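4.2 Preliminary Data

To establish feasibility before requesting continued support, the project team ran the inverse folding procedure on a target of 592 residues. The structure was first converted into the token representation described in Section 3, and no sequence information of any kind was made available to the design step. The complete token record follows.
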């Protein structure tokens, strides 16, 4: 049994002292020196197989250490958004990342200069065979870039330019508080705390929080718009210089997928949208509303008053993981017992949740804000799924561990489905089961409609940004138009400042931080459906699939491990039917 678990994570095991850690300062200094040494080694590469193996081990080593440092700084900034020292460290790590990017650009220059015969011989060597796919990928992508010296200059300038705008957004959003009236007094909530309250069963509370939420983001909209416009302008200028005429070229390559696959997925979503609208219409009827507002989507249906302690949530997740795979349960138990999870509900934390890895320690850290809801339980299982994915990758070479964002959501959504299905099956009465089914349907609306609205907004924003700066009122118009289309005009009130409130639009390492969530949700659902059909026999297949996520394009991954063609709508339609199968019971349970 898991009892008396602490709800703050242990970062001192990596570097004691947090943002003032002398050990971390020394770690960064050593890393900078070693990055410079690797840069020299790349420039003097002689070409022997032994020399290549040594060099690539050095490249992977400094890359792992940089990931380790980045994870530590990310944790520091998330646990306390007002930690000024942590913000400075984030800038330092960003500078080291730029140096590493230049090292990799130099590496690309060397590998692209190799004759094809020599290159193939190198890939076939025993030492490099485990990362042959990743090296070939680097060689092909390098051919799409500017001359190396120009790419190095871009990496250097991006620290204070491109990435600086993202840091500005993090600063502005991190200091934002939402003033809420509660028990006759004003309470200032962090964005994460306010977001949790928008699923309150009392509509007046939801409405009040949503109105204050919109007002708060409107108050910083000018700063957010400036950051967003400059991020987009930077990307568009860079893409033009490289000769890329499609703003989706970079995200497609990062996610190792084709436009045909993306279009097939969205086509399937559109074809199944009437089912989601049917759910929203019934919800509107149940709430007795003339129209469903943005904040009503997350309103609970059913009479479940289930509140979980953190210990209870941990125990439940571990028990359900164990039914699918004891190794997953063992991993989760270790994470809980060894304080890998920051879950305390307190002001000053960043909004949202994430899982990050510390490759040198072969550990992960998970960030959530746990207030006892079933949604919190779902998030906890989701982030543990990410951690388990990384756990399976730890034995692979660092280059082969770098899986794309779309498949990164496979294990997390899989773990979440395990927890949600179990919760629904164990419900003690119809009203509690209804509540849990409603939660699952909310997830479908979020992943298939909300995420699509983000994709539509960002695509259209970039099209307009090519013509010049896009104003706050126009950003609001684009956002609402995208939300209306994605939700099939099923709502009466939308969220104009969503573009300002969503961190994902400002991420400089992941362009189009949206469609991979839908991909991961549906791809994982397809995997989960097969796992349920095959039972224990699927465990080894599942592990093999996850381990191949860093060394295979997604179409090949699906073909090899699932036997399906994801560039066609059929797979996606089947996955949507699977995740929305509970709608029929939802309609039955709520029939008058």
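Position-by-position output of the design step:
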């Amino acid at each position: 049994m898991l009892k008396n678990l602490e709800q703050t994570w242990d970062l001192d095991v990596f570097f004691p002292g947090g943002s003032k850690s002398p050990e971390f300062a020394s770690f960064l200094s050593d890393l900078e020196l070693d990055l410079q040494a690797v840069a020299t080694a790349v420039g003097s590469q002689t070409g022997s197989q032994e020399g290549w193996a040594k060099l690539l081990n050095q490249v992977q080593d400094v890359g792992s250490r940089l990931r380790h440092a980045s994870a530590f700084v990310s944790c520091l900034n998330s646990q306390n958004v007002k930690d000024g020292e942590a913000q400075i460290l984030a800038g330092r790590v960003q500078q080291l990342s730029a140096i590493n990017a230049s090292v990799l650009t130099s590496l690309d220059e060397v590998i692209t200069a190799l004759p094809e015969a020599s290159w193939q011989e190198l890939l076939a060597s025993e030492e490099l065979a485990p990362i042959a796919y990743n090296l070939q990928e680097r060689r092909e992508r390098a051919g799409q870039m500017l001359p190396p010296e120009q790419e190095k200059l871009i990496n250097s300038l991006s620290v204070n330019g491109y990435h600086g705008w993202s840091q500005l957004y993090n600063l502005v959003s991190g200091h934002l508080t939402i003033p809420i009236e509660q028990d006759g007094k004003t309470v200032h909530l962090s964005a994460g705390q306010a977001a949790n309250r928008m699923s309150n069963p009392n509509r007046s509370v939801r409405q009040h929080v949503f109105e204050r939420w919109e007002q708060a983001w409107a108050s910083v909209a000018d700063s957010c718009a400036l950051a967003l416009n400059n991020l987009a302008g930077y990307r568009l200028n860079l893409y033009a210089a490289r000769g890329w005429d499609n703003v989706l070229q970079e995200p497609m390559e990062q996610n190792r997928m084709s436009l045909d696959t993306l279009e097939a997925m969205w086509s399937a979503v559109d074809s199944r949208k009437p089912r989601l609208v049917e759910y929203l219409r019934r919800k509107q009827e149940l709430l007795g509303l003339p129209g469903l507002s943005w904040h009503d989507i997350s309103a609970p249906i059913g009479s479940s008053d289930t509140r979980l302690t953190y210990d209870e949530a941990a125990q439940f997740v571990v028990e359900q993981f164990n039914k699918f795979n004891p190794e997953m349960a063992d991993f989760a138990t270790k994470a809980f017992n060894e304080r890998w999870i920051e879950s305390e509900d307190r002001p000053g934390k960043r909004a949202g949740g994430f899982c990050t890895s510390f490759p040198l320690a072969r550990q992960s850290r998970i960030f959530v804000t746990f207030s006892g809801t079933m949604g919190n339980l779902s998030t906890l299982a989701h982030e543990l799924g990410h951690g388990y994915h990384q756990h399976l990758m730890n034995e692979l070479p660092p280059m082969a561990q770098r899986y794309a964002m779309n498949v990164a959501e496979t294990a997390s959504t899989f773990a979440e489905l395990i927890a949600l299905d179990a919760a629904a099956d164990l419900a003690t009465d119809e009203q509690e089961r209804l509540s849990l089914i409603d939660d699952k349907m909310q997830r479908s609306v979020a992943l298939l409609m909300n995420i699509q609205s983000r994709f539509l907004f960002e695509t259209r924003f970039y099209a307009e940004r090519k013509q010049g700066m896009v104003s706050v009122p126009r950003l609001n118009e684009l956002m609402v138009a995208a939300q209306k289309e994605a939700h099939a005009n099923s709502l009466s009130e939308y969220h104009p400042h969503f573009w300002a409130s969503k961190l994902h639009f400002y991420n400089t390492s992941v362009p189009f931080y949206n469609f991979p969530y839908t991909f991961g949700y549906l791809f994982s659902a397809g995997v989960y459906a097969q796992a349920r059909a095959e039972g224990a026999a699927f465990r080894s297949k599942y592990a093999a699939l996850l381990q191949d996520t860093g060394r295979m394009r997604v179409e090949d991954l699906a073909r090899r491990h699932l036997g399906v063609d994801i560039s066609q709508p059929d797979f996606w339609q089947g996955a949507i039917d699977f995740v929305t199968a509970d709608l029929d019971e939802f309609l039955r349970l709520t029939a008058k």
